[in-house]
Amino acid sequence: MRILFVADIYARPGRRAAADVIPRLIQERQVDLCIANGENAAGGFGMTENIVKKLRAYGVDVVTSGNHVWNRPDFVRRLDQAQRVLRPLNYPDDAPGNGSVIVEARDGTKVGVVNLQGRTFMASIDCPFRIGERRVEELRHETPCIFVDFHAEATAEKVALGYHLDGRASAVIGTHTHIQTADERLLPKGTAYLTDAGMTGVQESVIGTRTEIAVQRFIDAVPARFKPADGDPMLCGALIDIDADTGRATAIERLRVRIESTAGADVGDED
Q1: What is the model's pTM?
Q2: Domains of the chain and CATH, by start
């Protein structure tokens, strides 16, 4: 079975790329399950219920997230009811929402999806290694096919988690930095790994924001409101092939798909 993972969708340009590319990839590459990180989909910060509905309409089956999932209070209040929208599992139990889910792929395979967040240079929350290992083992009682989105800053922390879950998770794919790494590989025990899948949005930007605003903030250190960059977006992500009987990955392909025209894309009015 084949999973399409779409890297952090950033604001309206990212949603335009998602609207254009995801349906084509699902059909042309015979994708059985589509997972997308949507934590930046609404203006670069958080999500809205309407945007999630749009992503689902494009073919996204599960939406993962990270630290920005909490940016929009109206949406946070709906997380408990949003079974296929995940927040990082290793936030405290009292936090709203779910950190994992089991879904049925188009080919009938059950797939467990787990969302974790790193702690290096990020919020001090529960240990993603212990929490992730425990949940993966629980899910393996129902399916050997398990996908992990690890939303983390430090590359070393991501690589370490990949090896920690090697042979137990089918794939460990990193998100958060918006910069795609070129280290996709199959780990020794059969886990597909990529340190960071990148960003779905305007590449001629500073991780999705307008360059002039970001540069000036580094120069004068004065807080400024970031605005999404304009331009032709690119969809980044990965395709992962998994043996449905064993849960072992058999292939991973890094994706970078640029689109030149976004006219007519049904992405809504939000930034």
Answers
A1: 0.94
A2: 2-258 (3.60.21.10)
